[in-house]
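User: For my dataset I need records formatted as: sequence, then structure tokens, nothing else. Please produce one.
Assistant:
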Amino acid sequence: MPIAHSEQLFTIIKSLTKAEKRNFRLYVQRLQSNEDVLYVRLFDLLDKMEDYDEEVVLEKLGDMPKSQFVNIKRHLYTQVLKSLRLIHENIESIKVREQIDFAHILYSKGLYLQAFKLLDRVKEMMPEGGHDLLRLEIIEFQKFIEERHITRSRKKAGKVQSLLIESEQQESRVSNLVLLSNLKIKIHGWYIETGHVRDQKDHFTVKKYFESELRKVRTTNLSVTEEIYLQQSYMWFYYILLDFEKCYQHARLWVSAFDEHPAFMIEDPVLYMRGLSYELTSLYSMRDYHRYVNVLDKFEAFTISHEKYFDMTGQIISFLYLYTAKINRHFLEGSFEEGLALVPEINKLVKRYGRFIDVHRIMVFNYKTAWLYFGSGSPEHSIEYLNKIVNLQAAGHLRTDIQCYARLMQLMAHFELGHYNLLEHLVSSVGRFFSKMRDLNEVQRTLFNFFRNNLDVKKQELNHNLQSLRKEIIRLEKNPFEGRTFHHLDIIAWIDSRIEGKTVGEMIRRRFQE
């Protein structure tokens, strides 16, 4: 097991809850009479470590050939997974797969009638409209038994014919589900590769592409999962087009599919929370405060009522989406100082879940925290969080939009603090970074040029130039293809705060109250 795989072993052990660790130890005690077996000692070592250190592990375990150490790690990884399967055996999909496995065992023992009846019972226990692939697997196994053995099903009127019809219907559903899954991944991939549309040409291209792909799928008589996949696809399509009202409508239909089938909220709470999050993202982009607060209240109520069903992934997603939404609410209200109260809790949870959160999520939190401080009139604290983004070596092409806006906010913060000597260097550095970006928009260029041309001007001239910048930004704001900038950086509020000598938060709050 290479180093990368060693880290996987370490990560899965660090993800275990107290109950899961206790269950693992009970599980291995049943397997081994000697509690001091090497892989159990390895488990205890890794459990106590904060960071993985293979040299320390080898020293503690004693000298052994590398191949033996690899085998111990592989064996431990397998045993951890087996113990997790046992403790989570009540998860619907795991229960169904277990029953299918039992049916295979019965069949291998020659008890094909028992296997057939067990599969019938499994189908009855499955929720309607869910687990389509597993349902098809069950039906095909029943057909396999029917073909090879005398099951007496033909003595029951329509039994075999019913099975064949069920097979054809389920095959059609699964085939369509695969196409819908492909569609949502393709359109999401389009966004990852190209971002939002930048002009009419982009708009035409993505519309033509989506409509051609949509023609491949059936959009009527859908199962719950098919309906959710379809709404996800539409949601991403309109998100790319910057049509946030339609984006919201399809995110709402996605959520409504769960609301109408509450069992699916328990089965897949993460997908439900993602739908709520995209509702909130759309409403935030439209600055629709009242609908935003209603959805946020619904989200918070859901996390309270369903938290007991959250696994580790559910806990992380709940934290990421809910706290992002809470911060965005403060941005809408202009209550930046109140929003700062969230920062200690966010930092605490980032530390708790850090090894399970990808870099871009942490980058987004750092950016939003920086904007909270900036809007509260503390640009010096804002810079601390912006530096975490600017200096991030692993960023690469990850969220280049956030990287661009972080650099612009960094210029704004140093401008606020009067660091003009430093700004000369920063402007050159940001200019080099921007020259590598292929999708800079006009708002970003305009703001950057303002800093480049106003490092050593007198106050009276600066105020005049700020007024000119304000007019230009307002003009650009009317362009629907430039709108995405204002979701990240309220440039007009900053200009007004400079002119009036107030904080950005005060300017946004006044606008909100009007």
